[in-house]
């Protein structure tokens, strides 16, 4: 049984990669999910059971308010859904449970004495509350205690990233000594490998931009279009999102294609020389596994994304930019990342390492060992 946090499809995509590996090895795989996450899992052909959503995300203007999110979650009483989780586990009788940041799945598994592995790429959520008053300091301590309790319950804590010192999420990892003994760096967990992906026929050099043109991200989206107009030798595919009408963007440069959505972005990624994206961990794992450098534009006040973006720049895998960047600065960094040989060499190393690690296989072997034991 794989439980998936549905707040962000990065959790879903990496769990699908695990599910596919397990099914190919002859195992019976069930998912517990909700919302669009459940729909996506079912479209991929897996058995999916509806579970209660666990957290309500609250924020505005690109900033996540974790305090309000926690309070809103408690008000909805969704933690009472644990009874449903217990019944689901009794009915399906799994040998092993994997829970990707879905804590009711963890608690439910342990209440039924089932082995459970937890997937996380951040363990320092209390960082959201630092420097924000006494009440936030108290809440930060409660959050830290809760996380510590979850890590104590887990048989293994799976980090879906490269092993140290290469882990992109390393600035977001803080564990007690006894938890570190449980930590397992699986390697990237991505929906498709480079080898099994057929590249889209695109004019090169090519830039894939997944920032989106809605809400607070619209200014940087428009700046990328403006940067594209300054040099027509570089071609672009921009994903605007379903809420944006491309015609509202005015006359586009000839080297720019705007799509609202693509079902499979891997053919585009394989055909691209650069990815421009927010600071989400899963997109970073996909780009690095395909050997593509990144310009990251992390959401403001989103500590996890900011830290991920810093590592990408520090490790020579791309550049970190913010919403104040000018079109000229964006174009300058695009040219640097496409043309500089040191970036290409570094990304080639990360691509080869991802193949060697084979994250889905590593998790399957861990699950099989747990079940046999």
From TrEMBL:
Gene3D superfamilies: Glycogen Phosphorylase B (3.40.50.2000). InterPro entries: Glyco_trans_28_C. GO terms for molecular function: hexosyltransferase activity. CDD domains: GT28_MurG. It comes from the Archaea. Residues 254-350 form the Glycosyl transferase family 28 C-terminal domain. Transmembrane segments: none annotated. Belongs to the glycosyltransferase 28 family. This is Glycosyl transferase family 28 C-terminal domain-containing protein.
